[in-house]
Amino acid sequence: MTSTQENHEHRGTAIVGSAYYPVLVAVFTALVIISNVTATKGVAFGPIITDGGFIVFPLTYVIGDVLSEVYGFKAARRAIFLGFSMNALAALAFWITIYLPAADFYTNQEHFENVVGAYTQLIVAGLAGFIVGQTINAWVVVAIKERTKEKHLWARLVGSTFAGQLGDTLVFCAIAAGAIGISTFGDFVTYTALGWVYKTAVEVIMLPITYRVIGAIKRREPTYQLAV
Fold it and tell me: Structure pTM?
């Protein structure tokens, strides 16, 4: 491959072999694992039904936007699969722990099994929903960028959020509802609609921060080339 061809191939993205990409992937992976653990608890604020994952889960999409915008679709997809591979490893470790002989003073075996069972179902839900949602999110960012180049970053971030979060929330909630105890259709609709609106709203509110993070990484990332 000639230097000109290589420059054209990486135009508008950075190469993943820098110091910034692994840091972003590490934060991304940690947020995914934390979200799945906290999501095992159903939460109600009066008629509003959600789960504990609402605390940090929207931030995974902020990181996903940064990865897609700076490093491209393939690099973002790599982070998605790595994050859920680590989730699968966590689930395996939890199940092995269940079957280890308990100490005489340990009295929480049943509670631990209940949490791990819910966590495993949420991993399945999260894997399905997150792969769908993050793939849509990354694809929309890259597709819009091909047309707008470096302009209209807000359109890429907002458009990808609306589409990605819708796909993610529909798939995730359809599988996860039973794990946190949702049993009626009305509660399911509330859970799904609230999840989509909330996660989308958080990302929109976070736009100024996302803008600054993307701008800072583009300026400091030595392999990033402007899309022209």
Answer: 0.71
Q: How far is CA 70 from CA 45, 65, 147, 193, 226, in A?
A: 37, 8, 16, 30, 10
Alpha carbon 31 to chain centroid, angstroms = 8
Instruction: Reduce the DSSP state of residue 140 to 3 states and report it.
Output: helix
pLDDT in tens, 28-74: 999 988 887 887 787 888 877 777 878 887 788 789 888 888 888 88
Beta strands 48-51 and 42-45 are: antiparallel
Tokens describing residue 8: 């054209």
Contact 73, 135 (CB under 8 A): no
- Read off the amino acid at residue 87: N
Amino acid letter for position 12: G
- Cβ contact 200:165 at 8 Å: yes
